Amino acid sequence: MKIGWALGAAVGVFLVTNAPMNSGASGYQGEARTDSGAVVVDIGDNYFSPKTISVPAGVKVKWNNVGRSTHNVTPNSGKSFGASLLAGESYTVAFSTPGTYAYYCTLHGAPGIAQYGTVVARAVSEIAKATIKTKSVSPNRTVVAVGEYLEWSNKTKTRQRVSFTPAAQSADSDLAVRTTVLAAGESSKVRFTDSGTYKYQVKSVGTKSRTNTGVVVATAID
Ligand SMILES: [Cu+2]
Q1: Fewest C-beta atoms under 10 Å: which of 52, 55, 68, 208?
Q2: How far apart are CA 169 and CA 109, in angstroms?
Q3: 110 pairs with which residues across the strands?
Q4: Do domains 5-18+125-219 and 33-122 have the same CATH topology?
Q5: 128-132 and 90-94: which strand pairing?
Q6: Would you kindly state where each structural domain of the chain is located, as residue ranges?
Q7: CA-wise closest residue to 62 among 29, 84, 36
């Protein structure tokens, strides 16, 4: 497959080709999707994981309560979605209208506090975006249609290295090491031309800061 970095400042474009991933028809490695084609968010005691996800509008999101406690998915505002889930239960909903859907568990959180999460549903033509912060990359899970871009913006005060590494890929991938460095304030985007699960790391250059991680799932979407 090919991954090409397209730097906002036109610094350069890098291309790499690797052997096809043996990802099968679903191509999700069981990680970001279920067999039924929904993006999965785990509900634990007491958190949502991933905390932030970005999906093309219309893609289903499925919450699985993998914890021992009862939890709920409650919108910060309105009642367009939501459910209360016993341990082992799940809840699926499609966000067909583009927007940012913030939610929380009323038992263990509040809007933006403790057990909370966000679903970003993008219009189909919109470039998926992720923000690099000192302590996170957000959203840390992004689903793109094959052929779409994900654009990272470096909102920190230091240079940040974004790397796709073979070790971070699924076991059957031999994707070559892919790296780009973003200056403070710079943006860069990558186009995903093949379906697959792409894990990446973001690390500040030259400092002992933490390593943040993210995942991109590229999938054929009708
Ligand atoms: Cu809860």
Answers
A1: 208
A2: 33
A3: 113
A4: yes
A5: unpaired
A6: 5-18+125-219, 33-122
A7: 36
Q: pLDDT by residue (tens digit) across 135-161? A: 889 998 898 888 888 899 999 999 999
Q: Summarize pLDDT for 44-94 with one digit per residue, the tens.
A: 999 999 899 999 888 889 999 999 999 999 999 998 999 999 999 999 999
For residue 65, report the distance from its CA to the centre of ligand 1, in Å.
9
Compute the C-alpha angle 57/61/67, nearest 5°. Answer: 160
SS (H, E, C) 153-200: EECCCCCEEEEECHHHCCCCCCCCCEEEEECCCCEEEEEECCCEEEEE
Class of domain 33-122: mainly beta
Q: Does 5-18+125-219 carry CATH code 2.60.40.420? A: yes
The predicted model scores a pTM of 0.72
CA distances in angstroms from 202 to 55, 94, 135, listed in the order given: 21, 30, 10
Distance 156 CA to ligand 1 centre (A): 32
Residue 131 CA to ligand 1 centre (angstroms): 27
Do 48 and 66 form a contact (C-beta atoms < 8 A)? no
Q: How far is the CA of 8 from the centre of ligand 1 (A)?
A: 40
Cis before 46 (ω within 30): yes
